[in-house]
Amino acid sequence: MPNKVKEIWKSGKAVVNGWLAIPSGFSAEVIAQCGFDSVTVDMQHGVQDYQSMVQCFQAMHGHPVTPMVRVPWNEPGIVGKVLDGGAYGVICPMINTPQEAKNLVQYAKYPPKGTRSNGPIRSGMYGSAGSYQQTANDEIVLLPMMETKTAVENMEAILDVEGIDGVYIGPSDLGFSYGLVPKLDREEPEILKIYDKIIKECDKRKLYPGIHCSGPVGAAKNIGMGFKLVTLANDSGIMATAARQWIDQTRKDSKGKA
Amino acid sequence: MPNKVKEIWKSGKAVVNGWLAIPSGFSAEVIAQCGFDSVTVDMQHGVQDYQSMVQCFQAMHGHPVTPMVRVPWNEPGIVGKVLDGGAYGVICPMINTPQEAKNLVQYAKYPPKGTRSNGPIRSGMYGSAGSYQQTANDEIVLLPMMETKTAVENMEAILDVEGIDGVYIGPSDLGFSYGLVPKLDREEPEILKIYDKIIKECDKRKLYPGIHCSGPVGAAKNIGMGFKLVTLANDSGIMATAARQWIDQTRKDSKGKA
Amino acid sequence: MPNKVKEIWKSGKAVVNGWLAIPSGFSAEVIAQCGFDSVTVDMQHGVQDYQSMVQCFQAMHGHPVTPMVRVPWNEPGIVGKVLDGGAYGVICPMINTPQEAKNLVQYAKYPPKGTRSNGPIRSGMYGSAGSYQQTANDEIVLLPMMETKTAVENMEAILDVEGIDGVYIGPSDLGFSYGLVPKLDREEPEILKIYDKIIKECDKRKLYPGIHCSGPVGAAKNIGMGFKLVTLANDSGIMATAARQWIDQTRKDSKGKA
Amino acid sequence: MPNKVKEIWKSGKAVVNGWLAIPSGFSAEVIAQCGFDSVTVDMQHGVQDYQSMVQCFQAMHGHPVTPMVRVPWNEPGIVGKVLDGGAYGVICPMINTPQEAKNLVQYAKYPPKGTRSNGPIRSGMYGSAGSYQQTANDEIVLLPMMETKTAVENMEAILDVEGIDGVYIGPSDLGFSYGLVPKLDREEPEILKIYDKIIKECDKRKLYPGIHCSGPVGAAKNIGMGFKLVTLANDSGIMATAARQWIDQTRKDSKGKA
Amino acid sequence: MPNKVKEIWKSGKAVVNGWLAIPSGFSAEVIAQCGFDSVTVDMQHGVQDYQSMVQCFQAMHGHPVTPMVRVPWNEPGIVGKVLDGGAYGVICPMINTPQEAKNLVQYAKYPPKGTRSNGPIRSGMYGSAGSYQQTANDEIVLLPMMETKTAVENMEAILDVEGIDGVYIGPSDLGFSYGLVPKLDREEPEILKIYDKIIKECDKRKLYPGIHCSGPVGAAKNIGMGFKLVTLANDSGIMATAARQWIDQTRKDSKGKA
Amino acid sequence: MPNKVKEIWKSGKAVVNGWLAIPSGFSAEVIAQCGFDSVTVDMQHGVQDYQSMVQCFQAMHGHPVTPMVRVPWNEPGIVGKVLDGGAYGVICPMINTPQEAKNLVQYAKYPPKGTRSNGPIRSGMYGSAGSYQQTANDEIVLLPMMETKTAVENMEAILDVEGIDGVYIGPSDLGFSYGLVPKLDREEPEILKIYDKIIKECDKRKLYPGIHCSGPVGAAKNIGMGFKLVTLANDSGIMATAARQWIDQTRKDSKGKA
Fold first, then answer.
1. Per residue in F110-150, pLDDT tens?
2. Is the pLDDT of residue E257 over 90?
3. How do strand A141-146 and strand A166-169 relate by DSSP bridges?
4. Nearest of D33, D57, D161 to residue D102 by alpha carbon
5. Of A234, A229, A196, the residue nearest A4 (C-alpha)
6. Is E250 in contact with C220 (CB distance < 8 Å)?
7. Does position C129 have pLDDT exceeding 90, yes or no?
8. Which residues of F touch E46 (CB under 8 A)?
9. For a FRET experiment, which of C147, C240, D172, F6 has its CA 20 to 30 Å from that of C137?
10. How far apart are CA B22 and CA A25, in angstroms?
């Protein structure tokens, strides 16, 4: 099964990514039918764990989205488990050094490129028998997160690590580490300059930079800047934003009756 | 603990109600913070069962919403269980005759008004010890659904049943039973005439009519007509509607780049 | 596998029964090691459903307690499911007439005594293959609840129904239906007179009367009166009672320091 | 989305049906890839409830099997919920009279053929928006179980009920009700004669008879007799049969070393 | 939302802490109403994981207890997840060196004090929007466990680590590491001497020492010694202790009849 | 409670081990009744996590199998949790150096042999009170996995590590690391030579070598070679293999009718 994310990138376009914080197969299958290219289960900050990830993946199977995961940490046990569980992509938080990026690659790639253990209990269901192990190293997307000052200082060395497909920017944490308020769609020139450099350095290496956004305005702007994967806020955030707006409108239009 | 729904009604206003189809405490607590007056776990058409209802109720506790349930059917076992589980209101589908409405009242009220069995395992936590059983018959809201031609024909007899607090209109099923397409915000004069009559007959008896809507426009319109409880579509519907819109806008604003 | 409850009754003694409201296999296995003769999963007022019952039964398997269930209602689907799930005894709420008792027997017994459907998915694990269906009608305990004025008025006719093993008194509901406050350990002469009569009528028919209590004092007293199965309050009640006492003692003994 | 079961029947062939007793999306998706035409979640005797059914359905989505359910009982609440949850077929136990079959049809069909309530929370995902309600009455398979002497006596009247697609034989219960040992693959002439008659009466009415089997031998024999849907034992039974055989062979071939 | 634990400490008093081993929101909300000041979900030795912690926290929300966690290990992924999940306090096992304590502080504090990643999915619900990130570093309680000989040898260096609020003694492990039997309420002079020193060294630094106890007697004694947080045994232990006592009393008072 | 695995080894025989990938107590209790000596919950490649392991263990309790776990990684938090949860044996993946083996022993043994923390929440239920801590170091089986070229090169040093009971071969990963296709039952002379050496070196040290197989043929062959623990493929694999075979036979014997 080819990875839709890689196909979109090959076509020169950007990927519009969904983000699951709600630990429910039902909300996952709803999101999977809304038009996203890929959908990521957030095991770091989302209310997700391994079993809820499996349920989300099962529920999204058969819908045209690439299932990805943000792992809680760069730890070999969980990186292996999410890949066996069916992830076509891994976003890994807080990769600050080339060594940390190399470790991620080791955990996620089969020999000889890495040390991932064989046993793709769900991902082995993709394609014909035995084919998964032959294609996984090529098909799975690896995106270390660049979200601290240290990571920015190590940018080029990190991007030189063989086996990654790009980086994923966490604007809140990135700003936080520079002493700024944690928020998503950033406007500070010093941060935008970093974004520019990331995009250029990725382009040089045929890598794909991604970024976490808070809605369509920021997402489109970031695509315009050159980002190749944008996340449109998470499921619960979209729901809450819309619910608040609908309630407000209902009360307003009811003119004091509700 | 007084029932906020009854307080709003006493103040002459309409209740804005949320609706939970996603079986997750997390999405429930998100919804509970958006500004709804009451939130209903939908055990009939939602992806909900008793245990997911309990988790939703636990997660909403401490937030300023009245927890209600739509039960899957007018059956004494489940009516008792949802009340013991903490529901402050019960919406019951497909009540077509006065006898069915009387049965619902019997299942939901303690003696001498009904035959509900004592054992409020979670609802007994409300208020001081032993107080729940003294106030439950007065505080809990009972809304039989009026959603078929038969029910409309029996309207006045149903509304005369002692112990109900109003009725709840299911516009899809109501239209369906009249040979119309099942949809929520209806415009057919024959249906609007039924709505009018329900509102008037409720007013006569100091009962409160409620209705299921598909968004703020229909909700505000229905409040304007005289409905006293409006549901603003369910959690997954709000999420999907907004997600589709955000994705579309992102793609459009990206001008072919996504 | 012989039913320990029946063996204790044959020996002339009373059964000390535990009661599970917490939907957790772990708390069930803890309770199963405390010294109860039988442990009942309360699907009526407890925070339990079918799956949590299965988990409680699995966790209690291998511990020396007879697994029983209080079903949410006298409905054939759930009576069959709890028996298939491994129950050795069924307590059924709100049996007010002989016909309701006969229905319960029909739901719970295999042909020719009843109409229970064959498929003991977990209970078939007891004993050697195929033996379960031959012994289930004899081994499983059926206890309709006698907990309303109507039931008391029908007492002898209910006790005459073939296939039941006794009755189970719900003191709260019984008092409630007589216009008294709902509580467990009752002292009212009119209620005690009913208890007396139930015990005598059971004795006449070699049936075993059981009763729900709120602690050891009431339980021992009821055993003294002739009850043959006493429930010692539920798991969460025992826990809360002791926790409150321990906290109070800690604060008191800390003399203002906590 | 057309129903594969109906397509196979139209082609003149028999459906090979899987059966899920294990409440796990993972075992469901494994079974869904083994070659079955349809897979039925058994909510009557299996260790399944509504939420585990949803998980099984989500996990089977995208695999080429028709999802069906055996409901625990002929009760409107659960029949509606399993259809809303995505079932393309309903097998209903213990239908003994034409009235019971008519009730099942009422519960399962939208108006004007029945009284099913509108709200296909998951099944509405099939096909384009709004299309489900237009096709569900035609696409969904309804199979009342014929599994008692009473049902056999009412055979023709039951088969005459409009809206059913056939019947499903439960050989254990059928034998049980005739005073025989409960088992699946039956050889008694009196039972085989009943099978013959069911097949003929179904053929007359263009209905499709199905039957529960215990393995490939019985299944193939029943297909040869004219049954149009055969179940090959449940998931846990297949697993246990094979596991026992593998262990035995391992120990035997190890010649006393294990 | 101010942290009640810190407020009690400021008032000079000791905190009475509950401890959850049962993975159930229901038992958590029962415990949360018994009078504890704080309640800790034990992810190390309790039958708890991240999702059960979330359910316990959701169920305790709205009750007047501070929610805390004992993490399974000093690992950045899980420390971040429990804080995002709503913990107001983290107890971390087996902190034996100042470096390990520093790591814990790094994992648990936002920049510039640490490297915690921003994304308080549930804890962000506390207070007004955005306020959490501004107060979390101050409000959250960090208690490394001092429970080995090595830790005792490093006591002063550990207590000097900036960002911790005290230490938490695990008497069983502490005794174990000194070659003593593992048990809770210890009397050995060598251990009591260690306790004394811990209390004094904490006092010097305005830190708060806590300790795990087995009941009210030990708890009150430890408060008397100067401990500022005492845990009264876990939920399942309290339940089992009381259940055993009630059963024994019932049997004893029944004089051979049970 | 003595460990059956150790008893079988003492008797000179090999252990036939089951393997659970399905996260369900029900499938676990089915497998536990098939004749295995031990059953291992696979938390590395199986669809298992801590809570599903607990449910599998609870469901297997009372059945004559030794409960074991393959942990996801050699990490102290999870090694402690599975032992507290009731594991009598731990298989640990990817132990490539003596230091890694020593770490595993440290995590799994109580002082003075290791640093495992005291709190056997479920395993403490085995035997009489307090006895578990005295026998656990002796009764629990520790099997580091030898499954890379590096591990083979360190074979003797790893086997010299005090506290392990043998090693467990992962044939797929072992082959993978030697540049071969990942599969279970291997025939390559270079691999068989490694097996031979492992068996001999284990024998020298009175250790017990185990190996993962794909069915009875390979298992019996490996027992013949001298392996002392063989795994017969996992639950889902056994089920799928048999289901495919049954379906094929049904279709074949139906001669085009299915």
1. 999 999 999 999 999 987 778 999 999 999 999 999 999 99
2. yes
3. parallel
4. D161
5. A229
6. yes
7. no
8. 121
9. C147
10. 9
Of E107, E118, E132, which to mutate for an interface test with A (greatest number of A Cβ within 10 Å)? E118
Distance separating alpha carbons of residues A226 and A200, to the nearest angstrom? 9
On whether the CB atoms of residues E24 and C24 are closer than 8 A, the answer is yes
Asked if E88 and E68 touch (Cβ cutoff 8 Å), the reply is: yes
**Tokens 């809507």, residue located:** B213
Within 10 Å of residue F77's Cβ, how many Cβ atoms?
21
* C-beta atoms of A84 and F45 within 8 A: yes
Q: In terms of C-beta density within 10 A (0-12 exposed, 13-18 middle, 19 or more buried), how is residue C218 classed?
A: buried
| pLDDT recorded at residue B181 | 93
Helix or strand or coil: residue E89?
strand
**Cis previous bond, C182, omega within 30:** no
CA triple C95-C50-C240, angle to 5 deg: 85
| pLDDT bucket at C232, cuts 50 / 70 / 90 | very high
How is residue E116 annotated by DSSP?
P
Q: Which of A208-212, D184-188, D222-226 bottoms out in mean pLDDT, i.e. has the lowest?
A: D184-188
% of chain C exceeding 90 in pLDDT: 97
Which residues of chain D have a CB within 8 Å of the CB of B72? 77-78, 80-81
Yes or no: say if B46 and B235 are a contact pair by the CB < 8 Å rule: no
First to last CA, chain A: 52
- In the residue annotation, F45 being an active-site residue is answered as yes
Which among E77, E110, E117 has the least Cβ separation from residue A75? E77
Spell out the domain ranges in chain D.
Answer: 4-253
Beta bridge partners of F211: F169, F230
The closest alpha carbon to A87, from A128, A45, A141, belongs to A141
Give F2-38 pLDDT, tens digit per residue.
899 999 999 999 999 999 999 999 999 999 999 999 9
pLDDT digits (tens, 9 = 90+) for E50-107: 999 999 999 999 999 999 999 999 999 999 999 999 999 999 999 999 999 999 999 9
Beta bridge partners of E90: E69, E142
Least CB-CB distance to A242: which of B224, B241, B252? B241
pLDDT at D88: 97
Torsion of the alpha carbons at A123, A124, A126 and A128, rounded to the nearest 10: 170
- Cβ(A108)–Cβ(F157) under 8 Å? no
Q: What is the CATH number of domain D4-253?
A: 3.20.20.60
ipTM over 0.95: yes
Of the candidates C25, D173, A153, the one whose C-alpha atom is nearest the C-alpha of residue F61 is C25
The answer on pLDDT for A129 being more than 80 is no
Mean pLDDT value of segment F173-199: 96
Chain C nearest CA to D2, separation (Å): 31
CB contact at 8 A, B212 and B186: no
Report the distance separating Cα E235 and Cα A137, nearest Å. 47
Looking up tokens 């309630």 gives A247
pLDDT of residue B36: 98
Please list the alpha-helical segments (H only) found in A129-234. 131-139, 149-153, 155-159, 171-177, 189-204, 216-225
Average pLDDT of chain F is: 97
How many other CB atoms are there within 10 angstroms of residue E161's CB atom? 19
Helix, strand or coil for residue D83? Answer: helix
CB B8 within 8 A of CB B70: no
How many whole angstroms separate alpha carbon A170 and alpha carbon F16? Answer: 49
Contact B35/B250 with Cβ under 8 angstroms?
Answer: no
Letter for the amino acid at B103? N
Query: Which residues of chain B are modeled with pLDDT < 50?
Result: none
CA distances, D38 to each of A128, C209, D89, D225, E158 (Å): 21, 49, 9, 20, 63
Phi/psi at A167 (nearest 5 deg)?
-135, 165
Chains near E, with 3+ CB pairs < 8 A? A, B, C, F
Of all residues in chain D, the one with the smallest CA distance to C84 is D45
